[in-house]
Design a protein that fits this description.
- The complex is a heterodimer.
- Chain A is mostly helical.
- Chain A has eleven helices and no strands.
- In chain A, helix 1 runs antiparallel to helix 11 and helix 3 packs antiparallel against helix 8.
- The longest helix of chain A has about 35 residues.
- In chain B, a hairpin with a 2-residue loop joins strand 1 and strand 2.
- Chain B is an alpha+beta fold.
- In chain B, strands 6-7-8-3-9-10 form a six-stranded mixed sheet, with helices on both faces. A five-stranded mixed β-barrel of chain B has the order 11-12-13-20-14. In chain B, strands 15-19-16-17-18 form a five-stranded antiparallel sheet, with no helix packed on it.
- Helices cover about 20% and strands about 35% of the residues of chain B.
- Classes of the chains: A mainly alpha, B alpha+beta.
- At the A-B interface, helix 7 and helix 8 of A face strand 6 of B.
Amino acid sequence: MKPRSPVSLLLIYACVFVFVIYAPSLLMVIFSFNDNIYTTFPLKGFTLNWYWQMVNQGQLLESLGHSLKVGVVVAILSTVIALVAAMALTRYRFSGKGPITVTSLIPLVVPYITLGLGLLILVRQVLDWKLSLFSIGAGHVLIATPFSMLVLMSRLEGFDKNLEEASRDLGENGWHTFWRVTLPLAWPGIVASLMLAFITSFDEYLISAFLSGNDTTLPVYIYSQLRFPQRLPATLALGSAILIFSFAFVLTAQMFLRRGVQGGKASAL
Amino acid sequence: MTAASDAIISLKNVSKHFGPVKAVDDVSFDIMRGEFFSMLGPSGCGKTTLLRMLAGFEVPTTGEIFIDGQPMANVPPNERPTNMVFQNYAIFPHLTVRENIAYGLRKAGLSKDQLRKVVEEALGMIKLPGYGDRMPHQLSGGQRQRVALARALVCRPKVLLLDEPLGALDKKLREEMQIELRALQRSVGITFIFVTHDQEEALTLSDRIAVMFRGQPLQIDNATRLYESPNCREVAEFIGSMNFFDGSLKQLQNGHALVDAGRLGELTAIPGQSGFSANMPVTVAVRPEKVQIQWTRPHQADNILEGTVGPEAYFGDRSHYYVEVPGMDRPVAVAYQNHVRSLDNAESRGRQVWLTWQKDAAVLLPR
């Protein structure tokens, strides 16, 4: 008698798991095509109306643009900061490494509400800046850098320190060693860090809410529109579009990381 | 006496401290141009630290290093006339074999054709022709090691530094590589500085060996002198096996030393160095293969010890007998060539034997 294959049980579990995680998002996608202002069942009919509306809603697209701008800048800044820090921490001997690492990861454990409030006080009362995309961006760099650091430190730890020594030994100075050896080998980590930082910034609501001035980011704008029922479906359409985009993004990041580990081994052996 | 200008490397009072630990302790010696020089010692003796200081990866705490007459203080690794073969090869995993070998030639400004030619020659030298476009993960350990060697040699360094490069290879491959390395060094003619903890390897390959212990070179000599004339107990123990008999020096006579070894009687040995005087505590050191086993009491011989055969270790071509001698807390090791073909596994254990060795077979060591 054929034994009950455990694979089907696992398959069922996997399907349930994925369903539970994506059901809410799926609902959003479904309703974005639904010909009804109110997001209730039963479904009325298929329409692309809301997508048209979304494209035409100036403010919506404007805040999307802000989020993208801030996201890109934050991604680059936090990756650069984290890369330099990670290289120092993984390649040099000096005292205080432990405390420095821990301190740079603190934003991960501080609640964003407290962080947002603190940053607001810092920006307005102490520094006396105007609230703007700059202040939002600065706040985002603070919370995105720890993520970047985790990714990059793990990537840099993973490959052989002798490689950089070998490059020096063969005649290259620090700069060329970085370009010819460190960067190519850390590249998958850098790409992952850029994407992670971008998503962190793009997605972020709490700190953005505290620190926005006249120009808002997308999450803040969406939230502010929730009280207008006729605006909602267009927002759902935008959400669905972002969802699909994010999927593609993360998949690409995964492929990059995978390629770094298997295709051309990260260590010298 | 070799002229100072023959020294390609000069170490003067070089020390390296890591906090309270003295990894290298006030080391001064020269390495001659064109020699195959090894640094041998147990883990932690400072040999790798010394090698890294020559390469420029560690800065000496005190002392000076000269390479070909030039002081190396403040000279970074990329400006030194040295190249290193690392213990784990450190081949760049994201570059092809060709790109790896040519890595150090970027600054040389060679044309594409010249570069190609140099790389092809190098591939031929390491016996991997046609492997230029392979990736490192497609190579075996031995092949990667050869690529590391080629990569270092194409830069034409004055000194090649090798950090236990054969450690990760299996015995057969290691022996093959040892022969190839020696031949390569002879044909290329540059100075090789080789670090290893394997004394057989050092003895086979080197012109001279520095035996290092706790940051200090105890003896720097060629293989024969290190083996037959060690200058202290640590060196004698580290190289091969050795039997030690403690005693006090009675007198020096015609180049031989007579030693009073208490219960064991009077032993003779050759003093390999100066500085011995009467009544000094000394040790007589004899290699196992210099000790002869007699199955009947000999009438006339120097250095007679009586004992009982204990455990025997069989190596095929030879056997080691461990003979219990009253008065010694460790058995005496005797290496016996199995020059008679015998399938008779007769137990010699428990038999009474007499051990002798010739007058000049033993070395006198200070205690």
